[in-house]
Design goal:
This protein is an all-alpha fold. The protein has helices spanning 2-20, 32-51, 57-68, 83-92, 95-105, 108-126, 136-167. Helix 1 (2-20) packs across helix 2, helix 1 crosses helix 7 and helix 2 crosses helix 3. The protein starts with a helix and ends with a helix.
């Protein structure tokens, strides 16, 4: 647990430094969407700075996207999945239906391989930089590392929001 707290502390420091750079959020001419985009780029840059640009495939891809100043390069398809879409996909399959299909077909191995193949394609769409990766072990480790780093990023951003709300009179 100590390592994650150190990671979050380093992420917080890096995020604050990224947000203090000129032209990131200081401009009053930016609208809501421009400010949101600038904060996302700063958060991604902070995550890459702390994790290391060459540490994983997703961090290399994010480094390229940060340098270009564009988050669209993070998803392999032009159509990025929203949170609601991902939740719908996760809840679409129900285990009892698969058990019924397995008994009807007679082969659970075929269904299991199809289920794993479908889940790996979903993971390849979610995690940046692993679209062409064929090794499932590497894909799982990249996905796990990406999810842990995103969780730390969310925790740090929630901490910032709480601190800013507490500072308001």
């Amino acid at each position: 647990m100590q390592g994650s707290n150190q990671f979050k502390q380093a992420l917080l420091e890096s995020l604050l430094l990224e947000l203090q750079k000129p032209g990131v959020v200081a401009s009053r001419k930016m609208g809501f969407h421009g400010t949101k985009h600038a904060i996302r780029i700063a958060a991604d840059a902070a995550l890459v700075n702390v994790r290391g640009a060459g540490a994983t495939r997703w961090s290399q891809t994010m480094q390229t996207a940060v340098e270009l100043g564009n988050r669209r390069h993070l998803t392999p398809s032009a159509k990025s999945a929203s949170g609601k879409t991902i939740l719908r996909r996760c809840h679409r399959l129900r285990r009892p239906r698969m058990a019924v299909r397995a008994r009807a077909c007679g082969s659970t191995g075929v269904l299991a391989r199809a289920f794993v193949r479908k889940r790996t394609t979903v993971m390849k769409r979610i995690v940046p930089g692993v679209e062409k990766l064929d090794d499932e072990c590497t894909l799982l480790s990249e996905t796990l590392d990406y999810a842990v780093c995103l969780r730390a990023q969310v925790d740090v951003m929630q901490l910032l929001v709480r601190a800013l709300q507490a500072a308001k009179p």
